[in-house]
Specification:
2 copies of one chain form a homodimer. Chain A contains 5 helices and 3 strands; from the N terminus they run βααββααα. With 140 residues, the first copy, chain A, is mainly alpha-helical. The first copy, chain A, binds a DNA duplex (30 and 30 nucleotides) through helix 2.
DNA sequence: CAGCATCTTTACGTTTACGTAAACTTACAC
DNA sequence: GTGTAAGTTTACGTAAACGTAAAGATGCTG
């Protein structure tokens, strides 16, 4: 079976972040490792959380946003109707933002492809000129 | 035909950013409006640039990154082989990052859907309990 | 038990991307 | 001419997300 606890360094090297960052996330209320003495011990739950935090960052989520989502999520079982409605609203909001991102990505991909083509043909052009120069030199 | 020049306020309201931001982008070397007197005049080229800047931001690009891409792009015609290779490398890098983002988005979408379902059923549960409470009160 | 590696807390520093305020011109509107 | 609305420059302030340095606790290792 897979590991159940992790040191801060385990997580730092697995996800390629600094220990400073991981402690900072705890400071901001996004992670709650237990302690053995004064050393932090992370559960696989904590590990999942960290993964989510980092993925959120890659998608432009602030730490505050991720924290809010975590909190809403944690309160889902036993939450009041009002809390659930807030969660639903947040989910809808995020879904729409993701749609927008998908659009952005699709457009940028097209443009990158076109840029790549233009770049390639510019390089091809340079190579041809080079060849021509060589042939002229041989013709001497 | 479509407009060819724009005031700073035109762009600000069209793209929903502050004039401060637009001037800041110029300060950082991403925009180069002409002047009429001391007032900035933006071309439709500038407008496209701004749109690209903002889309870049939504995808997590820093202003410095966007600037670098613009500069590489602008140097494409007449660029040296080394510059073209750098551009090609950047393009490849960005394309890979976009693939990663697509993965991230796909996973997050799945999780949001699942969260939404759980949220909905929690709300449904609350409604049922409410109904039950009402019926018991009627039974009195 | 001395040393070193790894953990910890505390705290000040840094970068990015603007916000905000002050003080100043221009350009119409009345 | 006089607001006043929109533009300008200059400059200091700020929030987020850490970086970095200092100084001490802890645990193995030879």
């Amino acid at each position: 079976m897979s590991k159940t606890t992790f040191s801060i360094r385990d997580l730092a090297s697995e996800f390629d972040v600094t220990t400073r960052s991981i402690r900072f996330y705890e400071d901001q209320g996004l992670l709650f490792p237990t302690r053995k003495g004064q050393t932090r011990i992370y559960s696989s739950q904590d590990r999942v959380r960290l993964k989510l935090i980092l993925r959120g960052k890659r998608l432009g989520f602030s730490l505050a946003e991720s924290k809010e989502l975590f909190e809403l999520w944690d309160q889902t079982p036993g939450g009041s109707m009002k809390q659930l409605e807030r969660l639903q609203a947040k989910i809808t909001e995020k879904k729409q933002a993701l749609e927008q991102q998908l659009n952005d990505i699709a457009m940028l991909q097209i443009e990158l492809d076109s840029a790549e083509a233009r770049c390639q043909s510019a390089m091809q052009e340079l190579l041809l000129q080079e060849q021509k120069a060589l042939q002229e030199q041989n013709a001497k």
